[in-house]
Every structure is written in structure tokens, then in C-alpha cells.
Write a structure and sequence with these properties.
With 485 residues, the protein is of the alpha/beta class. The chain is 38% helix and 13% strand.
């Protein structure tokens, strides 16, 4: 049995039945990482010694007949912008290259408390700003399906680690599509929950009114199981919703018969390639055949979403990243005087894309331009949110492409920020409105995975997962692993 190919629920079942030990499973994980990660570069750091030790402890307790947490021994990877007690959290930035947090993010604590074993921290675009993982200060992650292509971003390391079967589960963060876009590019399932459903405490902030943590896995059931672990109110996060979380697995087998599904026509007009449209429409037809009522709809404000996002999110980033000045966190590059300290630390510590967004944000917030840019962006955000509220009065979920293009070549867009930003065009409306959305594999074009996006009402993640599960069953694509039959 090749343990690295097991899904989350298969790994849990095998451990529960004592078909293999936690140490065997974790050892298999590191063997897989050693085998493939030299080419893929999904991980910034791994913690093999601690992970093996934890696995041995779990096996000892299991042998004694002690009660274990539900996922005792299952490996997980964490995007390197979530704080981990005693383990570096770099945000893929030189300015935090040696930063070691003194606490766990709430989601990391929840995973540890339920028995997951963290095996390492995954690569990302610096401070989660990017769509290709090329903006990492350390190295570029490769797409496991084609090593010449990007894995998407900013959570490209997490997506690639799951796609290449290095781990069955990884966490990412989604500010403008940073879970869904790399999930589509890497052929895995990626889920962005409703804003407020999952605690952001311990997530290094990029744009606080957008950021949301969510899971990557190779099937919808694993995503639902992980959502049961990481969801819930957290008093340490003032934006955490005080709403009970359901058992997300209970909706997976309900089918879609009678469900009303809207297809927003604008999402097929945003420069979406014809080959993507064909695969996505084929997937929608399979859902139609299962008894859902599928109708075309219009969301006219969609064309303004990208502009609004790239005014508001840099403004929030410029404020959030002001704390990284060499005084309290991370790298400190000059003690000559205060001005020199700020200048040297920030100019050498931040990469080009981060500095670009800080400047954009400061400009949008500056006196004389605030009303014309930032305030107008907020007004557009309100219009987009109201439009979604109106449409969800008539439909259960919406379905649309996740990305406008297939994975592109490494280096192809990195010097053209405007073109790079267009990769987010199908995903940012969801973040502006704070909605839940999932990307599910729906086919291949020339060997490259294609993802379809399912968007739901606030805090109705169960229905999104219900449709995603039905789509997964009817398409029956299987859990393909690049390079393995």
C-alpha cells in the first residue's frame, strides 16, 4: 500500500483500523516529500524530527488503549503565513525570514488538538500578494502537472503539496482567490469559507476585510471533514462570526434534484478562454442532468470588481504592513537613525510586488485622492454585495469558471502586473462580498487541470459542498496524482 496516496478519510480509517501506524504514515509523507519536492518546491520548511516524535507518541498511546483525538497521526501542511509556535513563519518574505512566533494560529491549534501532525510550512507569494507563487522571496513553486508552469497563487505551495500527494490536506488563505485559483491550476479541491466562519487569529494580515483561511484536499469529503475541525467562533478574532457550525459532511449525499442554480453570464465574458468555457459548461450540463434547475443570470457589477479589489486591498495592505519596520518584527537592517532604519529595512526587506501594493494603497488613501479612489472602491463593493444578496434570493448557488486561463508558463507574466492581476477576475467578486466558494476539478485541456467555481450564500457552505460533491460523483474524474497511474 502506498500510504502517500491516501486521502484524509482513508488515512484516518487506516489508522483507526490499525492497518498501519502513525509513524509509518508520517514516515511515508517525508519519503514522498524527499522524492518529489526537490522539483516542485512546495515547502519552505519541514519539521521531520518533531513530526516523527509526535507520531511515535500517538502510536504508544494507541497501543496502551488510550482515547485519541479523531485525526491522531494524519499529516497536514500549513501555508507559511499562519503563526506556528516555535517554528518560523516567513510569509515568503526576507523581512520575516527569521521570525519565530510565540503562539499557534487558532486554526493550527485546532488541527493539533484534533490530532493532526504538521509536517511543514508551504510556499506562497510574499505576504500572499500574487497569483503564481513567483513573488516568493525564496523560490518559485512548480505546477506538479507541468514543471514549466506556475501552480497559481498565492497558496501555490499548499495546492502543489496536495496535488503531488505529499500531504492529504493543507491549509491556505484566500484574499482575492488565493485558494481557488491554485486549486484549479493544480487539479485539487480548494475551499474559501464565508468571511468570519474560520478564525483569522494568527494569520499574518494582508487585507483584513478579505483574508480567509480554508482547506485544500484531493476530494470534497476531505474538505468537509477539515471544515468540521477549523470552523467556529473564536473570541481572539473580532471578525469571527458567533454562529454554530454544522456537520459539513451531512449534506454531501443529498444530490441536487430541485436545486436552483444560476450561471452568471459575465463570468464567461471576462477574457475566459474558449477551452475553459467548454469544459465548465460540460460540467454544468452534468449537474443539469441530475435534476437541478439551471438558469442563466446576470451580475452587471462584475466588471467593476477587479478595480474595486485592487483599490481596497492595497489600501488595507499598506496599513497592515506598516508594522514591519525593523523595530518589533523580523529583519532590522540599520541602526544609524530612525529614518535610515525604516528605509533600509523596508526597501531591502520587501519584494517588488509588495512595495508596489504598498504604494498603490498609500496613494488611494492619500489626502485629495481618498474620495476618488478608496471611497469609490468601497461604494462599488457595496453594490456588488447587494447584487449577490438579490440573486441569492432566487438561487441556491452560482456556478462559473474559477480561472480565465490555463496554468501559464513560469516567467510569462511576472513582469506584467496588470496581466497578472487579471488572473483574479473570476474570484475577487466572492471576496468583496464575503461569500463561500469552492473550486472543484472539472476536466483537463491539453493535460492541464480546469476548475469550476461554486458560489453560495453567506454561511451556507453546506449547500456549496453538496453541489460540489454531486459534481465530483457525476464527473467521476478520480483523484489523479501527476506522474502516477
Amino acid at each position: 500500500m502506498k500510504l502517500h496516496k491516501l486521502s484524509l478519510y482513508e488515512a484516518k480509517e487506516g489508522l483507526d483500523k490499525k492497518e498501519f501506524s502513525a509513524k509509518e504514515l508520517v514516515t511515508s509523507t517525508f519519503s514522498r516529500i524527499n522524492e518529489v519536492d526537490e522539483k516542485i518546491n512546495a515547502f519552505i520548511s519541514v519539521d521531520e524530527e518533531t513530526a516523527i516524535s509526535k507520531a511515535e507518541e500517538i502510536d504508544d498511546n494507541r497501543a496502551k488503549g488510550e482515547k485519541l483525538p479523531p485525526y491522531a497521526g494524519v499529516p497536514v501542511a500549513i501555508k507559511d503565513n499562519m503563526c506556528t509556535d516555535g517554528i518560523k513563519t516567513t510569509c515568503a518574505s526576507k523581512i520575516l525570514e527569521n521570525f519565530v512566533p510565540p503562539f499557534d494560529a487558532t486554526v493550527v491549534k485546532m488541527l493539533r488538538d484534533t490530532g493532526f501532525i504538521m509536517v511543514g510550512k508551504t510556499n506562497l507569494d510574499e505576504f500572499a500578494m500574487g497569483s503564481s507563487t513567483e513573488n516568493s522571496a525564496f523560490f518559485t513553486t512548480k505546477n506538479p502537472w507541468d514543471l514549466n508552469k506556475v501552480p497559481g497563487g498565492s497558496s501555490g505551495g499548499s495546492a502543489a503539496s496536495v496535488a503531488s500527494a505529499e500531504v492529504p490536506l493543507a491549509l491556505g488563505s484566500d484574499t482575492g482567490g488565493s485558494i481557488r485559483q491554485p486549486a484549479a491550476f493544480c487539479g485539487v479541491v480548494g475551499f474559501k469559507p464565508t468571511y468570519g466562519r474560520v478564525s483569522r487569529y494568527g494569520l499574518v494580515a494582508f487585507a483584513s476585510s478579505f483574508d480567509q483561511i480554508g482547506p485544500f484536499a484531493r476530494n470534497v469529503k476531505d474538505v468537509a471533514l477539515s471544515m468540521n475541525v477549523i470552523s467556529g467562533h473564536d473570541e481572539m478574532d473580532s471578525t469571527s462570526a458567533d454562529i454554530d457550525a454544522p456537520d459539513f459532511t451531512k449534506s454531501l449525499d443529498k444530490g441536487v434534484n430541485g436545486m436552483k442554480i444560476g450561471i452568471p453570464e459575465e463570468y464567461f465574458q471576462l477574457g475566459v478562454k474558449s477551452e475553459i468555457k467548454n469544459v465548465v459548461k460540460n460540467a454544468i450540463n452534468t449537474i443539469d442532468d441530475q435534476g437541478a434547475m439551471v438558469e442563466d443570470i446576470s451580475l452587471p457589477t462584475t466588471e467593476y470588481a477587479l478595480t474595486s479589489y485592487y483599490l481596497i486591498s492595497p489600501a488595507e495592505a499598506s496599513s497592515n504592513l506598516a508594522r514591519f519596520d525593523g523595530v518589533r518584527y523580523g529583519t532590522r537592517l540599520s541602526d544609524e537613525n530612525l529614518k535610515s532604519l525604516y528605509y533600509e529595512t523596508r526597501s531591502q526587506g520587501f519584494g517588488e510586488e509588495v512595495k508596489r501594493r504598498i504604494m498603490l494603497g498609500n496613494y488611494a488613501l492619500s489626502s485629495g485622492y481618498y474620495d476618488d479612489y478608496y471611497l469609490k472602491g468601497l461604494k462599488v463593493r457595496t453594490l456588488i454585495k447587494r447584487e449577490f444578496e438579490d440573486i441569492f434570493g432566487k438561487y441556491d448557488v452560482l456556478m462559473a469558471p474559477t480561472t480565465p486561463t490555463l496554468p501559464f508558463n513560469i516567467g510569462e507574466q511576472i513582469d506584467d502586473p496588470a496581466t497578472m492581476y487579471l488572473n483574479d477576475i473570476c474570484t475577487v467578486p466572492v471576496n468583496l462580498a464575503g461569500l463561500p466558494a469552492i473550486s472543484v476539478p472539472c476536466g483537463f485541456v491539453e493535460g492541464n487541470p480546469v476548475g469550476i467555481q461554486i458560489i453560495g450564500k453567506p454561511f451556507d457552505e453546506a449547500k456549496v459542498l453538496q453541489v460540489a460533491s454531486e459534481l465530483e460523483k457525476t464527473l467521476n474524474l478520480g483523484q489523479k496524482i501527476p506522474g502516477e497511474s
